[in-house]
Amino acid sequence: MTTTDETRPARPAGRPRSARAEKAIIDATLDLIGEGMSLAELSIEAIAARAGVGKTTIYRRWSNKEDLFVDALATLKSPLPQVRGRSVREDLIACLEAVRRDACDARSRCVMSIVMNDAERHPRLAERVRQASIEPRRAAMAALLRRGIATGELRADLDVPIAMSTLVGTMMWYARSMGSGEDAEFPDGIAERIVDELLTGLAP
User: Fold this and answer.
1) Which CATH number is correct for 88-202, 3.40.50.720, 1.10.357.10, 3.30.420.10, 3.50.50.60?
2) pTM
């Protein structure tokens, strides 16, 4: 939880920002969490020391460590894939490729694991992370599945939440089985294979 001594007024509008300092602060936050520091242990002091900046530099940009953590976590997620709309199959493959890239980032997996494990202790933070990082991707996949139902590419009685859970859950299972980091050896064309196999059951 954010303590009162870690809260400062927000940065005044128009004040110049340093991209280098912001990157150092974001990286320091993610490194500390990725190394096993809990959210309760995380402090502005520790982040400033790791980033090599003063605490005031952080407070000019973020009011508290919760705001900083949410922004830092958002940088770990791959950009939402461009949905071309030519076929549900093509767009689902693009979405699963984004999931695979995120799963290959060991730091991202570690940070997300800590967030989920601390959700009961930090419910407001967990909800903000869900809204900022998880919900946009869920909404994008749900929209393309509903489009597939409308175009007749998918079954009219498709349970959209179950279909999403099946697609993403299968990729995450592979991610956990293949190891972590950029050297994780996923089977060739795994996104295409998952989509093609599941479309057998999702198609009309």
Assistant:
1) 1.10.357.10
2) 0.69
